[in-house]
Amino acid sequence: METSPIKQQRNLVTELPGPNSKDLERRRSAAVAPGVSSVFPVYVREASGAILVDVDGNSLIDLGAGIAVTSVGHAAPAVVDAVQAQIARFAHTCFMISPYELYVAVCEALNALAPGDQPKRSALFNSGAEAVENAVKIARHVTGRQAVVVFDHAYHGRTNLTMALTAKNMPYREKFGPFAPEVYRVPMSYPFRDPDGMTGEQAAARATEQIERQVGADNVACVLIEPIQGEGGFIVPAPGFLPAIAAWCHDRGVLLAADEIQTGFCRTGDWFACEFEGIVPDLLTTAKAMAGGMPLAAVTGRADLVDVVHSGGLGGTYGGNPAACAAALAAIDTMRNEDLAVAARDIGDTVVARLGPLQASYPCIGDIRGRGAMIALELVRPGTMEPDAEAAKRIVQACHRAGVVVLSCGSYGNVIRLLPPLVIEEELLADGLDVLAGAIGEVLSAPAS
Ligand code: PLZ
Questions:
Q1: How many angstroms does the Cα of residue 157 sit away from the middle of ligand 1?
Q2: With 0-12 CB in 10 A as exposed, 13-18 as middle and 19+ as buried, what is 307?
Q3: Ligand 1: does its nearest atom lie under 6 Å from the Cβ of 222?
Q4: Which of 131, 135, 409, 423 places its Cα 20 to 30 Å from the Cα of 155?
Q5: Category of 446 on φ-ψ map: left (φ > 0), alpha (ψ -120 to 50) or beta
Q6: Percent of the chain with pLDDT strictly greater than 90
């Protein structure tokens, strides 16, 4: 691996946020719509690997990767080179007007990597939400059916259709309706909160029985699911749940659309989380890590389905932007060459080995779960299942003050999640986890103020 220009070490030279960040925060509040918020007002000047350098010269450990985006690391050399070279050649033509090879090459790569051996086709877009919208467009067009089934705790985006698909009201949907129709929500398999001993098959039956009763299988275009839910709380369904849902879909002519926008591209220790239980979705949405930090998203699906949509039915001005495509090819190469799926598994093992033992000392840690480099802690009030969002918030804030960026998530806001760049160095990860463990000790031992 090339040596990075920025030292992969945490180093604080001011309190956080520092004076320059505070100045920028003042400018921001006069200029930026407050509806767009930031979890921690520390402004970034540059970044490399798993280190963010702020405008005051502090080096922070990034255990969030911009929400699972910079899996190949910040400023990954191959991505930087590819983007710079492409921008100098041409930045944009619009693929729908004058096409170019990079778009085709990204679709070829996606078709080869996506689960299943059947012929596939892909289309490229700008954001995860846009990819999800297009998966639904394709599913409805192909099946001639309208209903879309989604799950409790699901997150699929912030556009009008994807707000309807997303489960949580605050902050995503509050007063932003009316929402798109023909969206139906059913229970997810949530082993920590489901009745004791409920199997994946039983949880699937609970969901499919509700679909049949409330929607009617014949009306369903697709079942849309995150194989491991991201924003909803890193919820890993019980074994057997996804295969049973897939089988139900298959038997009823319902398309299975897997949203792997957060889980995809090595994050969970495989190229895609569906692979863990051998699920082959009919449609797959991807974004985030695919392009190493450049905005790019895709729908990849069975050729016999995707080919049904009429010419000109899908597209957009920027979808498959050349620089974003160049970045994607470089990021995918990096994942392959550096075996980042294996790196993700190693990260998961390290995180669980470090944080797992804390559960014995802190009964507030109700659950530690996830797969690969996608691990979370769910916090509850001791001896209960009652979510403790306040504790999660205080732990996250303590980490931030110490120069470690961790994120919370969860329908109840009580989950702390780790999504480090997959190239994070061992010592840096160990330091980040020590800070998190220290913050957990500090917050969970102290009485709530
Ligand atoms: N599907 C599974 O995780 C994006 C959203 C953060 P966009 N998740 C982070 C926020 O608060 O906006 C996401 C996802 C899954 C779809 C999306 C949407 O992807 O690129 O943010 O549109």
A1: 5
A2: exposed
A3: no
A4: 423
A5: beta
A6: 97
Q: Model pTM? A: 0.98
Longest dimension (CA), the chain: 63
For position 448, what pLDDT does the model report?
A: 53
Other CB atoms within a 10 A radius of the CB of residue 363 amount to 13
**The domain defined by 79-337 carries CATH number 3.40.640.10:** yes
Phi, psi of 322 (to 5 degrees): -60, -40
**How far is ligand 1, taken at its centre, from the CA of residue 5, in Å?**
30
Instruction: Indicate whether residue 155 lines ligand 1 (CB < 6 A).
Output: yes
Does domain 19-75+339-444 fall under CATH 3.30.1480.10? My reply is: no
Q: Ligand 1 centre and the CA of 155: distance in Å?
A: 7
433/354 Cα distance (integer angstroms) = 7
**pLDDT on residue 204:** 99
Pocket test for ligand 1, best of 225, 261, 407 (most atoms within 8 A of CB): 261
CATH 3.40.640.10 location in the chain: 79-337
Give the residues of the chain that fall short of pLDDT 70: 1-4, 446-449
128 CA distance to ligand 1 middle (Å): 6
d(CA 257, CA 281): 6
pLDDT of the residue at 5: 76
Both tokens of residue 447? 């009485």
* Residues with Cβ within 8 Å of residue 165, at least 6 apart in sequence: 132, 136, 148, 150, 154, 156, 157, 183, 224
User: Which of 67, 235, 259 gets mutated to test ligand 1 (max ligand atoms within 8 A of its CB)?
Assistant: 67
CB 262 within 8 A of CB 68: yes
| Ligand 1 atom with least separation from CA of 297 | 20
Closest CA to 142 of 208, 259, 222, 218: 222
- Give residue 67 CA to ligand 1 midpoint distance, Å: 8
Closest ligand 1 atom, residue 231 Cα: 3
Q: Where in the chain is the domain with CATH 3.90.1150.10?
A: 19-75+339-444
Interacting residues of 436 by C-beta distance below 8 A, sequence separation 6+: 63, 355, 395, 399, 404, 406, 416, 418
